[in-house]
Design goal:
Layout (H helix, E strand, L loop, with lengths): L12 H23 L5 H8 L2 H33 L2 H8 L24
């Protein structure tokens, strides 16, 4: 008869020490921000409530909402295309035939002029 293995969780004292150091540093930063008079929070408040800053904030929020809406619609579209049969989505990605026939000797169709020899 074999005894079942007893799993003992691994101790991580470094994680606890790092967390304690980070908490102390965060408390020191918060104390400095609240008690230091050299920050002049009344001046910061005046500048942050000017019309140009508030317009920038409004535009940022509008662009964020539009980007998220476009991303959601695009993601849903890709998910629907993924679930659809391949026959229905192939025409969306098939390469269109070019109007002009390309001759291998004729390089006039190239986007850049041919290089001098």
């Amino acid at each position: 008869m074999s005894n079942p293995i007893q799993a003992v969780p691994v101790r991580h004292p470094g994680r606890w020490l790092a967390a304690a150091v980070i908490l102390v540093l965060a408390a020191m930063l918060a104390h400095t921000l609240v008690t230091n008079e050299n920050f002049h929070w009344d001046v910061v408040g005046r500048y942050l409530t000017t019309e140009s800053i508030l317009n920038g904030l409004k535009n940022t929020l509008i662009l964020t909402a539009l980007s998220m809406a476009i991303g959601i619609v695009g993601g849903i579209g890709l998910a629907v295309m993924r679930l659809a049969s391949a026959k229905s989505t192939i025409p969306l990605f098939r390469k269109r035939k070019s109007v002009r026939k390309r001759n291998s000797a004729d390089k006039s169709w190239a986007p850049f002029p041919p290089m001098a020899a």
